[in-house]
Specification:
The protein is mostly helical and 297 residues long. It has one domain: Rhomboid-like fold, CATH 1.20.1540. Helix content is 48%, strand content 8%. The strands form two sheets. It has a three-stranded antiparallel beta sheet with strand order 1-2-3. It has a two-stranded antiparallel sheet with strand order 4-5. Helix 8 packs across helix 9 and helix 9 packs across helix 10. The longest helix is centred in the middle third of the chain and has 22 residues. It is elongated and about 90 Å long.
Length: 297
């Protein structure tokens, strides 16, 4: 990752806390570390095959691998200790998942620690202001629709592909597009190459990120394992750019440019007065000081 966003300092205008954004981060983290058995290594492969979005399976061109049941079975130890409880959990969770449902579930899975870290950092920095501008419920709808749009874009790019896609990148891309449209002049702190702090306008930071997605879609070689599904990002970007215009609160302006700070003006200098007792002696009184009718004659 060329840069890491760490802070934007953009204040809230309508909400006190971004509860939906925080909840989405928590859900993604719990799913990764608990149900996917995630960590520094790759997440359990059964979770990818079971709940990832596979275009060929979604379109009915191919069957989803049966190994997807391994994910649900491997979750059983987290439900308790004891043979009966484990068997009960396996019986409950090892059920076929409709392929249409993976259009939603894929967005809550991640491949490894760095995958989830990158998505959650973007969600932490930028999602709260989008939730503020849309409202809690409409932001949740916005998030889900951007994820769905990213999934549909991936399916459309290769309808017979058997490569599963996972990750919140489609929803995060929608948030990036919305932030770019609503707050392009907000100041964002980033780390260049993970170590050099820099404060830039959001349109420079996010504009670079958006252009890099388009460039990668055209230029980057998609062969090999653990490839990045650039079409998911493009679908999320397009959906976010349209939905934020429709779902924003009344009065929330597009491409908002905050007014420049008003410089502090020094108080006017006090007029010199002639002190009683000396014709040439002068002194300065504090601004706004009133001596009363008995002070001077």
């Amino acid at each position: 990752m060329a840069f890491i966003p760490i802070y934007d300092g953009n204040p809230y205008n309508y909400i006190r806390r971004p509860w939906v954004s925080w909840s989405l981060i928590l859900v993604n983290v719990v799913i990764f570390f608990v149900f996917q058995h995630g960590g520094w290594e790759d997440a359990d492969r059964g979770s990818v095959l079971g709940y990832g979005l596979i275009p060929a399976a979604f379109n009915g061109h191919d069957l989803r691998p049966e190994i997807y049941q391994a994910f649900l079975s491997s979750c059983a130890p987290f439900f308790g200790v004891g043979e009966r409880l484990v068997h009960s959990a396996q019986s409950c969770w090892v059920q076929p998942l409709p392929d249409w449902a993976t259009l939603f579930t894929y967005a809550f899975l991640h491949g490894d620690f760095w995958h989830i870290l990158g998505n959650m950092v973007f969600l932490w920095v930028f999602a709260d202001n989008i939730e503020d501008s849309l409202g809690h419920f409409r932001f949740l709808v916005f998030y889900v629709l951007c994820a769905l749009a990213g999934g549909f874009a991936y399916i459309w790019s290769d309808p017979v592909s058997i490569a599963p896609v996972i990750g919140a990148s489609g929803a995060v891309a929608g948030i990036v597009a919305a932030y770019f449209i609503l707050y392009p002049f907000a100041k964002v702190w980033i780390l260049i190459l993970g170590r050099i702090p820099l404060r830039l306008n959001a349109f420079l930071v996010l504009g670079f990120w958006i252009l890099f997605q388009v460039y990668s879609l055209v230029v980057v070689d998609d062969s090999g394992d653990n490839i990045i599904a650039w079409w998911v990002h493009i679908g999320g970007l397009a959906a976010g750019a349209v939905l934020v215009v429709v779902l924003r609160r009344k009065g929330v302006r597009l491409f908002y440019h905050p007014p420049p700070p008003v410089p502090m003006t020094p108080p006017p200098a006090a007029a010199p007065v002639i002190a009683a007792g000396g014709p040439d002696r002068r002194e300065t009184e504090p601004t706004g000081y009133v001596d009363g009718p008995w002070g001077r004659h």
